[in-house]
## 1
Amino acid sequence: HVNVNPNFRIYYTVSGKIYCPRQFKDWEFGGSVSCQKCGQAWGMEMIYKSVPIPSLSIKNFVVELPGGRSTFKKWKSVPCQMEEFNYVEFCEDNLSDLI
């Protein structure tokens, strides 16, 4: 899952290049994404159609729900709806200076 909030960039840093021998058709591995304040690993940056996008691993977060806080190992276990990623909308919101 990716964070599409244009303001999210101020909260994380990207370091190093993640190596993976596996190749993907539409995207490639970028660097490791971590909290800018404390350094906690959050996931990785994926390069999708030449655009870097933070991809977050839910196991690195505590989720606040109406019944309290919970941790999850997989996104599909989180009891909420996620919007589908819209590449064009993401580019318009985050790369407006290039369009």
## 2
Amino acid sequence: MGIDLPVVKAKFAAALTEFLGTLFLCLTVAATAGNSQIAPIAIGCALMVAVYAGGHVSGGHYNPAVTLAVFLRGGAGAPTLLMALVYVFSQVAGALTGAVLAWAFIGKNSAGYAAVAPGAHASSACLCAAMVTFALSSVVLHTATTKAQAGNDFFGIAIGFTVLSGAVAVGRISGGAFNPAVGSMTILYGGDAAQDVWIYWVGPLFGGLMAAAMFRALAWPEYYDEPPTAARAIIAPSCVEAIGTMFLTFVIGTAGASTSPFTPLADGCALMVMMYMGAWISGAHFNPAVTFAVECRSLMGAKRDHFSKYQALGHLVGQLLGAFVGAWAACGALGSREKTFIPSVPETAGASRAFVGEFVGAFFWCYMALNAANRRRIEANGRKVMANGFFGLAVGMALTSMVCAIGPITGGTFNPAAACMGPFLGRSTSGLGMYWVASILGGGAAAACHRVQNFQEFEDEESDVAKKPVEGNVADKSIGAV
């Protein structure tokens, strides 16, 4: 039996891609961790560009936990068991090579590596690694392996910025290795540095396993041709809302408890990547105010993408459940309820200022969600998906900007589900009722503005007004916005 040379060449190319991508990721980790204030940005960007460079060759895993998740996902594009093991070997070899290369540049003593923070319990570090790797693997599975999102341009930024968000949120606790290959760099140091290497295998691999299990349960169009049952049509989106809100709340609770100047960026990136992950199933609200705004849009007579009250109720239940789990996960990561950040109105802010601030912040978030993420959809493989690739970036960075601009005044997150973190943890929250009322009103106001600005979506398809273009920005005309 002869050797199938094209197959051998393809497998070698994939292994080399995994080796090189992990090498440059770990070179960036070793050279920046502990040496640069913007290390999380550098690491997230290194992963992002490596995924864009090698995704078409190997899938761009660069992480044994991701390889496990893709293998368990199954399907035509999943690696065989043998090829998955080749991937893992290539990734670990690339990681060790990247670490040694960093030593050549800055010296072994100056190079960074993953290390559990002094005083942090191993279980907390494992939880951090599992939570972020679960989010990372979920993002990979949903953005880079599905038929519904095939051909998108956002998969790389979604994957890379998941790591950015996690590094800011819990890097100071667990060492920020959501990747067994990255964690394996500690072996080169030996002694105390290497004693926690098991954490960086157990936590991430468990996260990848759970991501694969949830994907198989929720991404039914990838496995079945028939339409979902009425129950699944409600339950699956609600579960996606729970997952997205859980990770967002986890990042808010952990990053908000730090002194990092990148906390607003971590919050926005967490929202962005979860939107890219779950929009094709649930619409990716992750906020009761957004759900209210979308429901108002339907009640105002939108002619497409009708959102029923049963869907709204399912989303709300999922969001509150996700916030509950995320709050307690943040508590577990930090080791204390008191250390966990919870939204609360600062004593220096008056009630009226906080109310207006929360209203404005929620309005902006919902306004972006309606206009960037809900404005226009196209059919792809039998599913309605976003017609643009910037929707997640737009909504996520709206949150970042509002947390920077208004967060210090309101102490909030413009999200009633996240505002419940305090009660969920048994802590009092100043302004809980205000957070709900102001945010919901902000969502309703955003829906009203959306109705006026996008009047074509509320006209009959035969309406001459709806067909007539409005003079305006060339970019708007090019995508058929107005």
